[in-house]
Amino acid sequence: MRLDKFLSNMGKGSRTDVKKMITKGLVSVDGDIIRKVGFNVDPDKNEICVNGELISFEKHVYLIMNKPKDVISARQDKVHKTVIDLLNGYGNRKLFPVGRLDIDTEGMLLITDDGQWNHDLMNPKKHVSKIYYAHIEGRVDEEDVKAFSEGLILKDDSLCKPADLKILSSGEISKIELTISEGKYHQVKRMFASRGKRVLYLKRIQIGGLRLDDSLELGEFRDLTSEEMKKIKLEA
Ligand code: URA
To answer: In angstroms, rounded to a whole number, what is the distance separating the alpha carbons of residues 81 and 93?
Structure first.
């Protein structure tokens, strides 16, 4: 593999950025400074360093993003910005979002190029739970809590699994947290609609055992740590 491609794939910058690093003499292969951007490397065998720091070969990329609204959870779109556009070509890889959040939903989104990991997280049999924080128009009450816990029937007659609804405050606009273990289209909005209530604001705050990192501003993303990777599947 070309040295510039390897470094870019490892998230060290765009192809242009890494070419500059190489020609400036910041990159070494097995201890020798290499200034040829197309130098051939074998990531399994060569020790490749940038500024003396060893770059370990990661087969796949696993990212956490705090998705802003007005951005869609897709790879490409003719009209809207996508979550992949926000990555600015990160790693030059074929990254895609794990599942979808609606255009007006904010919060935790996982992004990867690992098809198997995506498949596992999306597999309904693995029961990976998701927690949402929401503002609901009108008073959410104990009857709603009971109905959610018994398994709601949506307006199209489909049955939801029991869900844990926690009321944080109840009033003209109620604040709630909802834990669900499935991912039907517009699930949270449709669950509340079946109770005659409208979701005004929706944010995903947890997947499996991993909470959204509060230090991530809307639109920001970073690599998941290996500890975080384990937490995601804690409840699977
Ligand atoms: N449920 C919804 O209604 N929308 C989302 O974006 C996620 C879950």
So the answer is: 18
Q: Clarify whether 213 is annotated catalytic.
A: no
Residue of minimum CA distance from atom 4 in ligand 1 = 186
Structure tokens, 202:
């929706």
Q: What is the pLDDT of residue 2?
A: 93
Positions in the chain short of pLDDT 50: 236
Q: How many structural domains comprise the chain?
A: 3
Q: Output the pLDDT for position 125.
A: 85
Contact 187 CB / ligand 1 (< 6 Å):
yes
Which one, of 192, 223, 193, 201, lies nearest residue 107 by Cα?
Answer: 201
Same domain, 16 and 34: yes
186 within ligand 1 shell (Cβ under 6 A): yes
Pair (202, 214) in one structural domain: no
Cα 82 versus chain centre, distance? 13
| 171 and 159, same domain (yes or no) | yes
The whole domain housing 162 covers 129-207
The two structure tokens encoding residue 123: 């597999």
In the reported structure, the alpha carbon of residue 113 is separated from the centroid of ligand 1 by a whole-number distance in angstroms of: 23
CATH of the domain at 171: 3.30.70.1560
- Cβ of 189 closer than 6 Å to ligand 1, yes or no, is yes
Among residues 77, 102, 114, 164, which one is catalytic?
102
The number of the ligand 1 atom at minimal distance from the alpha carbon of 102 is 6
The DSSP H or E segment spanning 192 is helix 187-193
Residues 102, 7 share a domain: no
Per-residue pLDDT at 121 = 92
